[in-house]
């Protein structure tokens, strides 16, 4: 009896919330009518995308509420509504996710009345099942009906709010287009950085080297001592130019990554870091096959950038890097014991990590509450 009461209590809370939402949807009809009239009159066309965004928030709240009862998340699949008005109007009308939400709203108007009928079952259910369990020693009969009704409501909502294959495909295409644009932007930024490093560093030194060699060649017969000095300076500049060229090459693809692999190169990063860095390797990453070169490079640069940010801005003394081989890819986690408060909009470091990882269809999660710690998790899919 106690278990049935607790389950029925949870079901009642779920049904009450669903009934309140349904009542709100009845009131929302006014907004829909105003939007429809404004759109048909053209002057209020701007209201349509805003109303669709509001519907998405309502449907999102319903998805979360249903997931809280069933324990299973309901995915979302929407196209972006952050473009110029004409594009937003077209997207709001053609987005399959909009039709999915409207279908759920219309169905809610129909079966929402059942929720109001279910709520009065709770008081008599306690009395009836109290008699059945206390006097007749039988299993409860009414309270499980409330639980089944909550299950039925959640099943309807799940079926109606689950994105269609077309909506999932459209959202996936838009996501790939966005990550492709980010990858192109990151690639162009990387090219500009390489060009700047070559122009301001190695190229300038090579020009000065050429000038000194020319002066030494012209003055060799007249002033051998000065020529030897110029040749010595030219040799120093040649070595400096070679050093800067090596640094540029490391920025493109570190040679240590090719020689030692991801684990060895990350351990080298830890040894050269200003922090006390501990490297943990799990999942047989050291013994098994190496990830693809692009995945290794993305993970390496993500760890390097995270450690650099922690040393510059974190304010802590220790950090931990965990590399893990997953069944579907690679996971790298960098945790520093600094003051936290990392802001992705405050610089290009975290944004660069996101763009590089997104280009490989991976994901980045950043947790950096004020007071620390800062945890950056990178997941990169790959086939082993």
Report what the structure shows:
With 384 residues, the chain is an alpha+beta fold. It folds into three domains: 2-163, no CATH class; 179-252; 255-381, Histidine kinase-like ATPase, C-terminal domain (Heat Shock Protein 90). The chain is 68% helix and 9% strand. It contains eleven helices and five strands; from the N terminus they run H-H-H-H-H-H-H-H-H-E-H-E-E-H-E-E. The chain has helices at residues 2-40, 47-70, 85-94, 96-118, 122-134, 143-161, 165-218, 224-252, 255-272, 293-314, 349-358, and strands spanning 276-282, 318-325, 329-336, 363-367, 374-381. It has a five-stranded mixed beta sheet, covered by helices on one side. The longest helix has 54 residues, at 165-218. The protein starts with a helix and ends with a strand. 27% of the residues are buried.
Question: What's the gist of this structure?
Answer:
This protein is an alpha+beta fold.
Strand count = 5
Q: What's the average pLDDT?
A: 81
Number of domains: 3
- Widest sheet: strand order? 1-2-3-5-4
Distance between the termini: 52 Å
Shape: elongated
Low-confidence region ranges? none
Indicate the radius of gyration in whole angstroms.
32 Å
Order of secondary-structure elements: HHHHHHHHHEHEEHEE
Major beta sheet, specifics? 5 strands, mixed
Structural class: alpha+beta
- The helicity comes to 55-70%
Percent of residues in beta strands: 5-15%
Topology diagram in text:
Blueprint: H1 2-40, H2 47-70, H3 85-94, H4 96-118, H5 122-134, H6 143-161, H7 165-218, H8 224-252, H9 255-272, E1 276-282, H10 293-314, E2 318-325, E3 329-336, H11 349-358, E4 363-367, E5 374-381
Parallel strand pairs: 1-2
Antiparallel strand pairs: 2-3, 3-5, 4-5
Helix pairs in contact: 1-2, 1-4, 1-6, 2-4, 2-6, 4-6, 7-8, 7-11, 9-10, 10-11
